[in-house]
């Protein structure tokens, strides 16, 4: 891999991030989070785009300083074109275009979903990168899909959610439990103190490799409503067990389809990516399947699970080597297929 130095910019949702990559080695990966959304129980698009405008210059400057890189050493600029919140994407896209023009360097557009998957090829992401072909369970607040990865830019979605994403289900159920947003990490923490077999919730019966998570959300809601009528303190008294049971159910739904796909396609190289790949129980099940099913597993470092610019820079580096540049007419897009 070349020693070109690339600035990556990520602004698809509520995290403003910038990273510097040299070859496939990350020199800096800086992010500014937006705590204001906790007050609203979810990301407010208008507030997110305003915060990106405030954060993007300090974040880029800090990434350059940490990497000890001058602007004139940058070989190209990679940015998230989509998918994501349009207002947020517009901030990152506009900044990347302006900076690329001022530095007279190539501009590289990046698909956010591809970036989650290709983060596995960052030098310190894994002891060894996945071998093609591999399956990647890409699971976050906005997306849940099984992707067959034949090559860096030859990817096929073979299964996806028809309604809620898994991360979205965690957050919506967390709201039922009166937990702060984002609820996923809180549920993960509380579940460690609970009994995963304490409660049983509905699991969908879906054909093929597709997912559905709206059913478990409804199942939890109706069950809680029924129990709270009998005991107003039911959630408080059973919170750890409820979290553990919900987490077990969601992970079983995820893994059943992933195991089915790996078996039917005869693939032993299996990775996870996206924000929910930080979940400790999901990581444990993946590690168990290394032993049980003989999988070669690839679990990203925590810093590469959530939305981050390191993964954007990695894809930009791969595209730079191929000479795949975009021009200043490019525009952000809320929907951007693999």
Automatic annotation (TrEMBL):
GO molecular function terms listed in the Swiss-Prot or TrEMBL record: iron ion binding; tRNA N(6)-L-threonylcarbamoyladenine synthase activity
UniProt binding sites for Fe cation: 112, 116, 307
GO biological process, one term: tRNA threonylcarbamoyladenosine modification
First-listed, main subcellular location of the protein, grouped into a coarse class: cytoplasm
Subcellular location per the Swiss-Prot or TrEMBL entry: Cytoplasm
Chain segments annotated as transmembrane: none
Keyword Cytoplasm in annotation: yes
Keywords noted in UniProt: Acyltransferase, Cytoplasm, Iron, Metal-binding, Transferase, tRNA processing
Class in the EC hierarchy, top level: transferase
Pfam families reported for this sequence: TsaD
Residues the record lists as binding substrate: 138-142, 171, 184, 188, 279
Catalytic activity: L-threonylcarbamoyladenylate + adenosine(37) in tRNA = N(6)-L-threonylcarbamoyladenosine(37) in tRNA + AMP + H(+)
Domain Gcp-like: 26-313
Keyword flag Lipid biosynthesis: no
CDD domains: ASKHA_NBD_TsaD_bac (cd24133)
One GO term describing the cellular component: cytoplasm
Source organism superkingdom: Bacteria
Cofactor section: Fe(2+)
Role of this protein: Required for the formation of a threonylcarbamoyl group on adenosine at position 37 (t(6)A37) in tRNAs that read codons beginning with adenine. Is involved in the transfer of the threonylcarbamoyl moiety of threonylcarbamoyl-AMP (TC-AMP) to the N6 group of A37, together with TsaE and TsaB. TsaD likely plays a direct catalytic role in this reaction.
Family from the record: Belongs to the KAE1 / TsaD family.
Protein name stated in the entry: tRNA N6-adenosine threonylcarbamoyltransferase
Organism: Chryseobacterium lathyri
